[in-house]
C-alpha cells in the first residue's frame, strides 16, 4: 500500500493526519507530518525530546490546533473539533487521577458524565478492573496505589469509554524498569483484547520495538521513517535512524567504489570496509558505515575462510549481562567498538577472552550499512 493509499484508507476507516504543521514562534515543532493508522493498530511515535511527537499527539487529541494540515477519523474531518467531541481519549504520564475519588469512582467518572445506567457502570468497571488484575481495589484511593497500579487505573478509565483511538503520552515513563517492562506486556495484551487503536508516544526505542505494530521515527518535527519494528531496526533509511534505534558502531570514511550492490569505504587508520549502500552512494563521498554489535564476531584468532570485514584491537572492558557478554574493544585509532557475544556455552572461545588481550573483530559485509548523508 502506497503512502497515498494508506492516507486514503485512514481517512475512510481509521485515523489519518495530512501535512500537519505547528509553529511556536520561530520554532517549527511539527513539519509537514503525514501518516495513517488502521483500526485496531498499535502505532508508535518515537523520537528524542523536541522531535514533535507529543505536539502531534496533542493535535490528534484536539488539545493543540495545527497551523496547517488536517486530521481525519473514521471518515470525518475532525481537525478543529474540540476534544470532547472527538471519539478519542488520552492517557498521560502523570496519571491525572482524581485524588479525592476511589478507584471505582475514578473509572466510573466518564460513564457517569455520559449518563450510563448504574447497573451498566458497575458491570463495566468490574470487567475492566478484572482485565488489569485490580479486583478488590474498588474502594482504594490513588494515594494508596503504587505507580504501576495508578497507571492501570488511568488506562482503564480511558478505555471504559470505548474510544476509537487511545492516545498514550509516555505513559510508563515515571515507572521503574521492572514495572515498565511488565506493563509493556500488559498494554499489548489489553490492546489486543479491546481492539482499540493505540497511538503511543515514547522516546524509548526498546519500548516501541517491543510493543508497536508500526513505528514512526521522528526528529526535528519530521517523520524520517515509518515501518514495522524489524524493518526500522534492520533497514534504517539514514544515519539518524540507525543511531537512534538500538546500538550501533559507526566508522567514518570516504567511499572508494560501488560495485555488485556493495560499497567500499576507506576508514583512515583502520581498513577498507564493505557494506550495503543506503540511498545514493557514489565514489568520493564522505560516508558512515554502521554495524550492530550483535552482528559482529570477536575472536583471539583472525577468521579463516569466508569474506569478512576485519579489524584488530585490544579488549578494554567486558560486561557480563547473563544472556550475553558485551566486549568493548579499542582499535588502533583509539575508537571503541562494542561487540555482543551470546553466552551459549562455557566451552565457547568468548569465555577465554580477557582484559587487555589482542582480539580480532569481524563481520560479514552484508551486515553493515553505508550512509552518505
Put the structure in a nutshell.
This protein has nine helices and 20 strands. It has 373 residues and is an alpha+beta fold.
Could you characterize what this model shows?
The strands form four sheets. The chain has a six-stranded mixed beta sheet with strand order 6-7-8-3-9-10, sandwiched between helices. A five-stranded mixed beta barrel has the order 11-12-13-20-14. The protein has a five-stranded antiparallel beta sheet with strand order 15-19-16-17-18, with no helix packed on it. The model has no long low-confidence stretch (mean pLDDT 93). The chain has 373 residues and is an alpha+beta fold. The longest helix is centred in the middle third of the chain and has 18 residues, at 177-194. The radius of gyration is 25 Å and the shape is globular. It has helices spanning 3-12, 53-61, 103-114, 118-131, 147-159, 177-194, 205-211, 229-234, 239-244; strands at 15-24, 27-37, 42-46, 68-73, 76-77, 88-91, 165-169, 197-202, 214-219, 222-227, 249-259, 262-267, 271-277, 286-291, 297-299, 309-320, 324-330, 336-342, 358-363, 368-371. The chain folds into two domains: 3-240, P-loop containing nucleotide triphosphate hydrolases (Rossmann fold, 3-Layer(aba) Sandwich), CATH 3.40.50.300; 247-371, Nucleic acid-binding proteins (OB fold (Dihydrolipoamide Acetyltransferase, E2P), Beta Barrel). Helix content is 25%, strand content 35%.
